[in-house]
Amino acid sequence: MSHTEVTRSPQGFHVGAEVFDVLVLAVPASVARKLLTGVLDRDLSGFQEIRATMAIHADPIYMPARRRDWRAFNAVRTGEHCEASIWYGGLRGTDEQIFKSWTTFRDKQPSEVIAAAEYWHPVITPETIRAQKRLEAAQGRDDLWFAGSWTNDVDSQESAVVSAVRIGQRLGGRPEKLAASVGAGISMAFAEALSDDGSLTGRGRPMLRGSVTGLMTTAGGIGHTLPFLISDFRIAMTFAVAVVAVELAAISFIRHRYMDTPLLSAAFQVVLGGVLVFLTGILIGSS
Fold first, then answer.
1. Which tens digits make up the pLDDT trace of 172-188?
2. Are residues 44 and 135 in the same domain?
């Protein structure tokens, strides 16, 4: 099997001898279409490309005739096409004559070429923007993702980086998740500590009650989200369910042991609350 072939089985995506739970394709749309033929259907028909050439060279062929008119970024129109040439000396504030030029439609090619390459260049049209919106809605479905400048906004290096960062954020842990757990802990700590001073209810000192409540809330929030750092979703979900089950059992025991609540009644109340939270999460997540 060539490393450019992708197949899929219940175990995941097969790329060569490797098997992956999640596949991120950082390739042009045309290449992605070929790789996914017979594997998964994705509507990539709205993305157009042209075969473009680029050269790094020392020939100032595309610069203005007068040296004082040279700029770091220069554009020349050739018929219906406009191509750029970047002067690195202008970027760095030096006199060095090193240029990066797009040369696909030029009337003349540069001499003193240091390096040259061909690549698929996205063609941005109104249909491209519509296709990007359709692709964004399908990102992550069946554990399949697409990265690259063609997937996001206009064609630029920044667009490619943004597309990769977004996928990384959605696949891995994010600081906001930790912040949500810590924030919930702080909120619960204040709510419990300020509810009463303990003199009438005998529930103990406010500082101690608030600290315990806040720490347990934070630990619970982190505990059932940490499993999702595991790349395999099924394994992560299994661990998360197990952690939640332990949390609910612990809460039921505490209510029974320290709050004089019958064990079955405590378990029913806690499980009912957990089910409501679970259903709310599904409702919000699928909206």
1. 655 556 666 777 778 77
2. yes
